[in-house]
Specification:
about 350 residues; alpha+beta; Phosphorylase Kinase, domain 1; single chain; 5-stranded antiparallel β-sheet; two-stranded antiparallel sheet
């Protein structure tokens, strides 16, 4: 049975003209775990696979679901040493599948969404994999956007100001209830906003749960590919660092959402991660707590938007969602941001 969001005959016909290496007939499988853009594994008749990405089924919010933009990002970053899937083709014609989509290579690896899944990583490999996470982030931030065709991805200056305006607006558009603390945090973040030093490609959702990890024969575990570039822009690299730290939870901490692979234990500490990143990037990390508060607040706004789409039935797995869990997570994230800023 073809999953929702795919017009199999029309998409197959498009593949014949634009992805001829994908042997037909094709079979489409929704890859579970995405809470925004929908990701499908396309099984080809010869046993190979590619991946198709498309926006949610309804009510998309501007650049977060721009398929052409996401395709451009992985095409650009793919020219560097940062591991990403290979961009194959882009369909901008909405008459094919009711929304734009793009096709990228299928990479073998494990997505470490949770502590249970990170049990796949041998104990001796967890600290080395941690270091790769820090080093790849430093590699991403070292890229000059103009060198890979991404100089026009966004405005370089005032990243925090732009993000505060964007997610405050999204909160207003997507909120499912009144939560005054979100407005209080936004005001405090604006008042304490540090000066931006330099400009980088910012992933926007950099964490183990958005990577394919794995080990080739006789080699250490490594990052096979960094995924989910839908929130990527140009701006302040510290936003990525703080977001990673908020997700890098210890076994005795509450997670910031459903993705908490480091709760399994044995991974590097936050201080080790920050030291490795500082060594690799040469950046000053003294303001990391402000950025962590910003990151909690931004993620609360994003999570509320996902909750909104679930409540309206716009997500492919809407019938399976625990909406109370989403509400609790938004409350936890906003409280965590307030604690970092000593609000209330």
């Amino acid at each position: 049975m073809t999953p929702a969001g795919i017009d199999a005959p029309a998409v197959s016909a498009w593949f014949a003209g634009h992805v001829p290496q994908a042997a037909q007939p094709l079979r489409f499988e929704l890859i579970a775990g995405g809470h925004s853009n929908l990701t499908y594994r396309v099984h080809c008749a010869d046993g190979s696979s590619v991946v198709l990405r498309r926006p949610p089924l309804s009510h998309v919010l501007a650049t977060a679901h721009d398929m052409g933009r996401e395709h451009k990002i992985i095409s650009g970053v793919g020219q560097t040493g940062v591991p990403v899937p290979r961009a194959i083709a882009l369909c901008s014609d909405e008459t094919v599948n009711e929304a734009p989509f793009y096709v990228m290579s299928y990479e073998e690896g494990a997505v470490l969404h949770s502590a249970d899944e990170s049990a796949l990583v041998p104990d001796a490999e967890r600290v080395p994999l941690s270091r790769r996470v820090a080093d790849v982030l430093a590699e991403l931030h070292a890229i000059e956007p103009d060198d890979v065709g991404l100089g026009d991805l966004g405005r370089r200056e005032d990243y925090l100001g732009r993000q505060l305006r964007r997610w405050k607006r999204q909160w207003e558009q997507s909120k499912t209830r009144e939560l005054p603390i979100m407005d209080e945090i936004a005001a405090e973040l604006e008042a304490r906003k540090p000066a931006q030093i330099g400009s980088s490609i910012v992933h926007g959702d950099y964490r183990l749960g958005n990577m394919l990890s794995g080990a080739r024969p006789h080699e250490h575990w490594d990052i096979v590919a960094v995924l989910d570039w839908e929130l990527c822009t140009l701006g302040d690299a510290m936003a990525d660092v703080a977001y990673l730290m908020n997700n890098w939870v210890t076994p005795d901490e509450q997670s910031t959402g459903t993705s908490a692979p480091t709760q399994a234990g044995g991974f590097a500490s936050r201080s080790q991660m920050l030291d490795w990143y500082a060594d690799a990037s040469g950046r000053d990390l003294s303001q990391v707590d402000y950025y962590r508060a910003f990151s909690y607040w931004r993620l609360a706004a994003i999570s509320e938007g996902v909750l909104n789409r679930y409540l309206r039935g716009a997500m492919a797995d809407a019938d399976e969602a625990d909406t109370d869990l989403f509400r609790e997570n938004v409350d936890f994230l906003s409280t965590s941001a307030a604690e970092r800023l000593a609000v209330r």
